[in-house]
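anyone seen this seq b4? input:
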Amino acid sequence: MENIRILVADDEEEICHLIKAYLERERYKVDIARDGEEALTLFHQHTYHLVILDIMMPQKDGIEVCQVLRKETNVPILMLTAKDHESDKILGLSFGADYYITKPFSIYEVVACVKALLRRFIVLGNNTIKQRSVMKYKNIEMDLTTYKVRVFGKEVTLAAKELKLLKLFLSHPERVFTKAQLFKEGWGEEYIEDDNTVMVHIRKLRKKIEKDPSDPLFIQTVWGIGYRFQGEKDEI
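predicted toks r here
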């Protein structure tokens, strides 16, 4: 893991050095930023394979940094927040974070989360990353070469738009997507105030991957915002 480089951005020095120490035990290279501006500067100077962001930082906060990074890269982003409100978690995930951990946290949870996020990607020889050819989350698996999908071990047939939506969800479990974001990813166009198009395809996808579409396990509705793909808390 010597070629894996991680950026940790948090204005609390003790937290930065704690995370750095434990991640370096796993043989990751770790850089520290104390505010959002420094985080972006470092990110543009080096190649990182994962970024850990605190929401509350000076200069630019974690949400702002996350928004900038998401326009440039698909690098996994883990968000740290001292706020234990659902709206804050949803905000971070909706702006592109892949997962969040609430302070105070167990350092072992952070390390486990980092390993799980990195497992979604494969490191190439030129120190860049790409998604693995097989994506798996809980009991859903998608082969990105053949685009075959298995749910609870059974192969299901999805239409093109359904595959695009599922791939997006599998790429970012727990992240909240607005209807506008789903529309742009699935249709490649700017969103028109037409909730029905997205809702119809979500309904079709649920029928194919959920055991009970009326009580979905995977595709959760976030009222007033959109949808997120989630499962039980013991995995990422």
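Confidence is low (pLDDT under 50) at residues 232-236. The chain is about 40% helix and 25% strand. kinda curious what u guys think
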